[in-house]
Structure formats: structure tokens, C-alpha cells
């Protein structure tokens, strides 16, 4: 078995540990049951962001940020387990002024520190697709290369005989790319 394979029961255990910490921090993560399937989700967070409302970019991989169009972006995040990839998957929706952002606007809202990495690294795919449990349009960070960036982290933890919460570690890597910062207080607990 690969070091990076995440069994569904381990996924659930990691999520339960995150939920325990979330309860203490009161930051809104919850475990939702949908048609007998459990989903970890966070309430909507609002952040100030800059987006470009124009969709005239010829290269969809390049996103511009307009300096004068500062708007409040609201995000809703869901973490699901992918049986196909044996990894967590981050699904999210983004809103501003009561309307959903387009894929181009989501790319534009990615902080410049991360946009280059998203376009040129293992974390290169933000896509829009139907949420597998809710049947509604969501954006997602595709899990196809999660193992590639998690392997070194898990290997170091194993080499130093340190416990690691796979889901928390993964979320700490992928979350900031789409406006979800994991508070440092989550790392003060031992998993």
C-alpha cells in the first residue's frame, strides 16, 4: 500500500479531529449528512478581494486583477472523499454581490502568490463541475496529483515518527490558494 493512500475511515477520523478543534475555535466547520453520505463543510467566509469582471482574456490560464474593483468575496467550502483517488477533494463556491463567480473570476480571485503555482504545478486544476452529492455547480481543485505533493510531507512525518492529520495537512496546502486559510491553532493539537 502506498504511503499516500488515504483510506475512507482514516479520512473520517482526520475530519473528526478537525471538527473537534473547530468546535473549540468556533470557526464554523460542520459534518453534514447528505443522502447517508457524510460531508465536512465550512460556513461561508467573506474576504476582501479584487476581481476583474471582464471575460475578454484570450488566454484563460492568465487572469488579470483590476486595481479599482475591490469587492467582498464570499466562499463556501466542502471537503469530500474521492474513492477514485483515495484523497480528499476541496469543492467550493464563490459569490460576490449575491451572484456566483464564473470560473474566470475564480481564477482572477486567486492571490498572485498562488496563481503561478496553480498554473505550473501539481495543483494546476481548478475546474467547475456538479457537486457529486448536492447536484449543484461547484468549483473544485482536482485531486489527480494530490499524492505527488503529499508524498514528501507524509514521508518526513513517517521518518521522524510524527503523527500527521492527512486532511489538515492537505487543507493547509490547498486551502490558501482559494481563499481558505487554516488557522495556526489547528496545528497546536497532536493528532
What can you tell me about this protein's structure?
- Belongs to the ATG10 family.
- Helix content is 29%, strand content 29%.
- It is an alpha+beta fold and 191 residues long.
- It has one domain (8-188): Yope Regulator, Chain: A, CATH 3.30.1460.
- Strands 1, 2, 3, 4, 5, 6 and 7 form a 7-stranded antiparallel beta sheet that branches.
- The longest helix has 18 residues, at 8-25.
- It starts with 7 loop residues before the first helix and ends in a 17-residue tail after the last helix.
- The model is unreliable at 46-67 (pLDDT under 50).
Average predicted confidence as pLDDT: 78
The CATH architecture comes to: 2-Layer Sandwich
**What's the level 1 CATH class?**
Alpha Beta
- What overall form do the CA principal axes indicate? globular
| Contiguous uncertain segments of 5+ residues | 46-67
- Using only C-alpha atoms, the radius of gyration works out to 17 Å
Taken as a percent bin, the fraction of beta residues is 25-35%
- In this structure, how is the largest beta sheet organized? 7 strands, antiparallel
Tally of separate domains: 1
Secondary-structure element pattern, one letter each: HEEEEEHHEEHH
- SS-based structural class? alpha+beta
Q: Please estimate the helix content.
A: 25-40%
Q: State the distance separating the first and last CA atoms.
A: 22 Å
**Number of distinct beta strands:** 7
CATH topology: Yope Regulator, Chain: A
Q: How many helices?
A: 5
